Amino acid sequence: MNRLVLIAMMLLLAPLATADVVLLKNGDRMSGTVDSVNNGNVLLITEYAGAVAIAVDDIAEVTTESAFDVAVGDSSVNGKFAVVDGEQVVVANGQPQPLALGDVTRAGQNNLGIVNFAREWKSRADLAAQVAKGNTDTQSYSVLAESSFKQDNVEHLLTLLVSNEEAEGITTQEQLDLDYRYKRFVSEKWYASGNFEYFEDPIKDVDRRVTLGAGMGYQFWDNSFGALSSELGVSYVNEDIGDETSNNPALRWGLDYNKFFFDKRMEAFHRQSVLYIPDSDRGEVIASSTGVRYALNTRIDATARVDVNHETKPAPGNSKTDVIYNLGVGIKF
Fold first, then answer.
1. Residue 284 pairs with which residues in a beta bridge?
2. Backbone angles phi, psi at 92, to 5 degrees
3. What is the reported pLDDT for 316?
4. Burial (0-12, 13-18, 19+ Cβ within 10 Å), 235
5. Where residue 115 falls among pLDDT bands split at 50, 70, 90?
6. Distance (Å, rounded) from C-alpha 179 to C-alpha 281?
7. CATH class (in words) of the domain with range 120-332
8. Which residues, 6+ apart, have CB-to-CB distance to 310 below 8 Å?
9. N-term to C-term CA, the chain
10. Could you tell me if 289 and 273 are in contact, meaning their C-beta atoms sit under 8 angstroms apart?
11. What is the mean pLDDT of the chain?
């Protein structure tokens, strides 16, 4: 019986043992997940208070379960924060090295590679709406929903963008863009890519555009402070424009960037794709989404975003560029 009780206690305490711990100089002990060290703060993600920035000067000890790229001056080392014989160290390759937290200029987790990917699911939705009454009656809304899933060396990203505008009872904008992207890492930074996109914009006579493609991509960086990747591939494009249907091969280039600031309260992002259709009647299709998000709490943030859709050779009678300005709220779930 005593053995069963001991096993049960170990199972109950196991989740606690895996938590990162920050011990303050005043004796307070905070547990959670250490995200990064930057600008003299340790960013701790907690279940009870969300993201908490703790001044390094107030910290006595830090212990972590995961390894970090720790920069001290011009040198850097990859290892876990630990305490050995009452002294703060970083354990690299099984060897503890003395470390003064005040000397750490930057520390973050490196998410590159096929080994470091863990099972992770993230979803969010950005919502923006505007209603104007008076000399003109205008109603507009946009929804940008994203859901990503990572497991082992594979990443899936599903994005849905819907934009609609009515002025004086007449629809002046009506776009739908559904995009799925797939990554399979074959090395630390290189990955095979696949993409599917469904786009429609009846106002510009694009009744349907379906793109299916594959290629290769390169992850320049992916860490606690942001990520940058780019990919190039070939695609098959099926379009219904006006009364004509066409099928064409194409080249596709994509770019995905995001960067965090102010202890992850602010995020800047830019996503862009260029679809080059060699058919002389089509030219290029360029789409981008650029903006910033500011976290109001762990679930809600304020969002400002600019969406651009540009066609070098649109259907006759249509403008080349659509620009949509969005100001709203984002919800994480």
1. 276
2. -120, 125
3. 82
4. buried
5. low
6. 24
7. mainly beta
8. 284, 285, 286, 287, 320, 321, 322
9. 42
10. no
11. 89
| Residue 187: DSSP 8-state | S
Give per-residue pLDDT as tens, 25-72: 999 999 999 999 999 999 999 988 888 999 999 999 999 999 999 999
Kindly list the distances between the CA atom of residue 237 and the CA atoms of 252, 267, 275, 315, in Å, as whole numbers in the listed order. Answer: 11, 33, 9, 16
Q: What is the mean pLDDT of residues 152-159?
A: 92
Domain residue limits, the chain: 2-108, 120-332
Provide the 8-state DSSP code for 25.
T
The tokens for 46 are: 């907690």
Task: Note the CATH number of domain 2-108.
Answer: 2.30.30.100
Whether the per-residue pLDDT at 101 is higher than 80: the answer is yes
d(CA 262, CA 34): 16
pTM value?
0.85
**Are 102 and 57 a contacting pair, CB within 8 Å?**
yes
Cα 165 to Cα 131: distance, rounded to the nearest angstrom: 10
Type of residue found at 214: A
200, amino acid identity: E
